[in-house]
Amino acid sequence: MLKGLSITPPVIGRISIGRVVEKNGKRLPQKDDQFTVTTQIQNRDGWLLHPLNETLRKAATGKLRAIPVRFLFADPDLSLRAEYSCFDRETGRPVCVGNGETCRRVGDTGIEELPCPSPDGCTFGQGGACKPYGRLNVLISDEDELGSFIFRTTSYNSIRTLAARLHYFAAVSGNLLACLPLELKLRGKSTTQSYRSPIYYVDLGVRAGSSLEAAITEARELDARRRAAGFDQTALDAAARAGFANGAFEDSIEDGAAVADEFYPAQSGDDRGHGDGNAHAAAGQTPTASSLKDRLDQRAALLGGKAA
């Protein structure tokens, strides 16, 4: 295994509740009130829709506000990873990631481990440059039992709610989180910070038409079948835990560029499509109007020059 490279769950698609639009030469996040399931391919018009997006919409009575899911891991902290994060918008690299106690920050001499006072008390992340940033991996279809869809968010509401639900479901099921039939749910609420307009966040619950008792019964039956087949959930969790620990930062340069474009826009904007709060340039960088495509083209040209 390559040291310094975080080994993350294989991703075959994305889940979002917003998108990036271009206005006056700037790419800004735009809120939405429903889920969208996309592939990992992006063109000028945005992310291409995944075939499951249409399938799920046909099964919904209205807007897509619930997605049936299962989880890869029994440990809630493997399915949802959340830290305070700063990204360099020019390169897409994470430059500082912390948990409120300690952080890993890129410095002149490499990666340093420093105290993390959280965004409100950190001079490095002042002005909204540092935010909570969460990644949730879920299974939607049975076609690829180890291929997950990822939901990224900088919403306190989504991160806090999902973390609580994951730990609660793991506890009440006797550590059978990976076997529970659950669903992601989109909820709305108004706050004084949102000026009474609705903001949307992601919650987790049992599937519509079912109950917690029925879900636990189904989870026990699935766990028994898996054990009989030789499925080793403990070993899978251990492999994932070791993979995450192998690198200093979870997001790669390629993923980081898209994350910075969507969640850390060049200019403060309404980012309530992904939760709450405003988006700002990361790491004290001077905002630029360059698009993700422009930066990728520049990077490709640079790599081409090096190869020559």
From TrEMBL:
InterPro entries assigned to the protein according to its UniProt record, in alphabetical order: Gp3-like (IPR043991)
Domain of life: Bacteria
UniProt-annotated stretches for the region Disordered: 265-294
Protein name (Swiss-Prot/TrEMBL): Phage capsid protein
Organism of provenance: Paraburkholderia tropica
Lineage: Bacteria, Pseudomonadati, Pseudomonadota, Betaproteobacteria, Burkholderiales
